[in-house]
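Posted in: Protein Modeling Q&A

I'm a second-year student putting together a small comparison for a lab meeting, and my supervisor asked me to include a predicted structure for Glutathione peroxidase. I've never done this before, so apologies if this is the wrong subforum. The sequence is pasted below exactly as I got it from our records. If anyone can share the C-alpha cell output, I'd also love a short note on what stands out.
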Amino acid sequence: MFRSFNSPVKISRRVSSISSLLFSNSTPLLPQYDLPVTVSPSPAVFFSIFSLRSPPRSVYCQTRFASVMAGNSSNTVSSVHEFTVKDARGNELDLSSYKGKVLLIVNVASQCGLTNKNYTELSQLYEKYKEKDFEILAFPCNQFGGQEPGTNEQIVEFACTCFKAEYPIFDKVDVNGDNTAPVYKFLKSSKRGLLGEGIKWNFEKFLVDKEGIVVDRYAPTTSPLSFEKSIKKLLGLA
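Accepted answer (user: helix_wrangler)
Welcome! Here is the predicted structure, written out as C-alpha cells:
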C-alpha cells in the first residue's frame, strides 16, 4: 500500500533539494526545468513542465553527433578510384589506375546458368571498346550456390580458354555479408537494386563513369549487350 503525502511543504522541500543536485552549475546532470508540483489525494505526484531553460541532453547529443558526422563528410569515399583490390595473383592494385576509363564491374562465376551468355557478351563488348577507354573488372564470387569453387588460377584459365576473356579477373571476394569487399560496399550503397543494396546473384553489373562514379546497376539476368548504348554514351561515342 502506498504511503499518502499530506504535507505540500515537505514535498516542495524534497523537490527543491533534488533540483539543486541535478541542476548544479558545476556538473549539470539534467536540463533545467521549472517543475511546479501538484499534490493530489492519490499517491501520485504529477510534474508539469512550463518553461525550458536549456535543451535536453538528448537533443545536445543528437546535435553533437550530427556535427561530428558533418565534420567527417569530407572523408567520405566518393569514387571507385579510391579503393585498392587484389588481382588473381594476390598483388594489390590501386583502382585509381583506371581513372579516365569507363568501367563495367561484374561478380562472375564459372558454373552458373548465366555464365555462358554473360561471359560471351562481356568479351564481345570488351573487344569492341577496349581501345576506347573501356575496361571490364571481373570479381569471382562463390556466395551464390557455390558456383565459383575453383582457385583463382582455375577461374582465370576457364574464362580465358572458354570465352577469350582479355579483361582483368581479380581475387575471389565476398559481395554480401560481414566480409564484403570494401569496393563492393561502395558499389552497393552508391546504386541500390530493386530489392535493396544486396547483390542478388552471379553477374550483377555496375557501370562506372570515367570519374569513378557509379551511374547504373544491372540485374544478373540483364544482358551486357542490352545496355551497350549506355556504355557508348559514357565513352562519348553515342
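A couple of things worth pointing out for your meeting: The chain has six helices and eight strands. The helical segments are 8-22, 57-72, 115-129, 152-163, 182-190, 228-235.
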